[in-house]
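testing teh design pipeline on a random one, pls ignore if ur not involved
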């Protein structure tokens, strides 16, 4: 039958409609890129970025995956990481290998490293927008939830960073999107594609397993009648593939792997394991993490403001309302409810180390619930409409203000760069330096060592010591856990060094000429 005049018109209208619904995603990505790139340009590097970048840099330009700047006895955990300068086994290798390729293509710098993560942040926003449109019948919820995530400080700060969360979170969300897309079209493909992406995420960082396990809970809840034994084999295959690749690397030095990975996986005083068997501790620590993530600075986020605690407090009524109203929902919205509950439980009881940066897995869920709550209040009209407007504007203003606070602080140019200029002169004069691995971005990962114990076990006797937030943070832990080591640190600094310069959070101590 030949096409009628009305058919092209209808097709054009549907095309414009689809394009219109993509507009919120485009806006979210643009806002995210502006804020994310600006943060990446202005925040000072920190120790974790140095620890991830050093092996990637060495693989890209020196042919090995060693963390060459770190003294084996100089890590903050009370352990000797034998072989660390030749091979890094602290975490799975996927992120470091991918980052090495990125460094070869775009050059090694902290900004380049962060742009790599920001690209994954864009992928996360696209996956979230797709999932929200599939789960929520009102597309305004998807639009607003994605926009709120794009300005969320936890999401921005974690993706404008050289750690693993951005890429692990993006691949895990893509795993959910693949399953949702294929579950009705071709279930077997849904299983295969989702688990290839999920395995890639888990072998970037094991904490991505909280999303994969949550997806598994949803799949079992809604699709268990579709599962056959072959599906379990197909799901396990990608994990076996990555495990075999990692095993090949582990077998190069199994003793070094045992000395590094197992200790690091257990965490400080085995906290990652202890919380698995103490649900009361896990719940308490999770509450503390949620309430302090936005206003306590220190090692991860630097300067913060106490009034930012209102951000997680604003989530509370939205989450309570959402679960109370939709707990019995079926269909796509019921899948989201099941996923949100499974993810919250997994983060509480399986994520033993309550790092703020791991909240990147949860904040999109909170943001879309907050969006649904605001729209519900708005639809009811009257005073509730004004409450929705006020809560929304306060939330947006606080999220933006904390990012602007960090951008204006510009610790990279005001603090980090002057520190590197001074250290470059010390190195040129042949003087030895001890400081955080983050110094490697400005020094090419050479000419200094990272030893938080200041030579207590390594025997290093540096001419210059650089103290930043990470060293101050770890020294507080050492003061409690290793009193003799802390006494050595305090005595060494007080008796052998004098303050030569201070640039914000970076203090440079040089050897004193006399007693």
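output:
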């Amino acid at each position: 039958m030949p096409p009628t005049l009305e058919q092209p018109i209808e097709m054009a209208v549907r095309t414009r409609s689809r394009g219109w619904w993509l507009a919120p995603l485009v806006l979210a990505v643009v806002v995210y890129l502006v804020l994310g790139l600006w943060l990446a340009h202005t925040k000072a590097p920190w120790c974790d970025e140095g620890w991830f970048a050093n092996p990637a840099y060495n693989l890209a330009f020196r042919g090995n995956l060693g963390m060459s700047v770190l003294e084996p006895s100089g890590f903050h955990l009370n352990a000797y990481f034998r072989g660390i300068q030749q091979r890094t086994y602290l975490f799975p290798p996927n992120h470091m290998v991918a980052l090495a390729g990125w460094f070869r293509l775009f050059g090694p710098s902290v900004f380049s490293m962060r742009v790599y993560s920001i690209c994954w942040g864009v992928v996360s926003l696209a996956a979230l927008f797709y999932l929200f449109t599939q789960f929520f019948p009102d597309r305004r919820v998807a639009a607003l939830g994605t926009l709120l995530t794009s300005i969320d400080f936890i999401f921005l700060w974690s993706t404008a960073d050289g750690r693993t969360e951005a890429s692990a979170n993006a691949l895990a969300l893509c795993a959910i999107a693949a399953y949702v897309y294929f579950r009705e079209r071709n279930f077997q493909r849904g299983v295969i594609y989702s688990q290839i992406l999920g395995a890639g995420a888990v072998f970037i960082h094991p904490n991505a397993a909280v999303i994969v396990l949550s997806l598994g809970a949803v799949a079992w809840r809604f699709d268990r009648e579709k599962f056959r034994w072959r599906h379990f084999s197909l799901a396990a295959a990608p994990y076996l593939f990555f495990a075999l690749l990692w095993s090949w690397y582990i077998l190069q030095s199994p003793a070094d792997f045992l000395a590094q990975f197992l200790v690091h996986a257990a965490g400080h005083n085995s906290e990652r394991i202890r919380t698995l068997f103490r649900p009361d501790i896990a719940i308490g620590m999770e509450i503390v993490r949620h309430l302090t993530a936005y206003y306590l600075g220190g090692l991860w986020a630097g300067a913060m403001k106490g009034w930012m605690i209102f951000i997680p407090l604003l989530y509370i009524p939205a989450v309570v309302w959402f679960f109370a109203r939709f707990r019995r929902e079926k269909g796509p919205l019921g899948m989201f409810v099941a996923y949100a509950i499974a993810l919250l439980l997994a983060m509480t009881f399986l994520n033993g180390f309550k790092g703020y940066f791991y909240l990147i897995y949860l904040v999109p869920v909170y943001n879309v619930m907050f969006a649904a709550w605001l729209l519900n209040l708005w639809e009811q009209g009257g005073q509730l409409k004004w409450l929705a407007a006020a809560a929304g504007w306060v939330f947006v203003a606080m999220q933006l203000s904390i990012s602007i606070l960090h951008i204006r602080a510009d610790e990279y140019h005001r603090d980090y760069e002057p520190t590197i200029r001074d250290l470059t002169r010390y190195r040129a004069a042949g003087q030895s330096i001890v400081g955080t691995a983050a110094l490697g971005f400005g020094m090419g990962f050479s000419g200094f060592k990272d030893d938080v114990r200041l030579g207590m076990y390594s025997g290093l006797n540096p001419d210059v010591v650089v103290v930043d937030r990470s060293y101050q943070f770890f020294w507080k832990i050492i003061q409690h856990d290793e009193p003799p080591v802390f006494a050595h640190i305090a005595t060494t600094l007080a008796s052998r060094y004098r303050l030569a310069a201070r640039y914000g959070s970076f203090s440079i101590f040089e050897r004193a000429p006399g007693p």
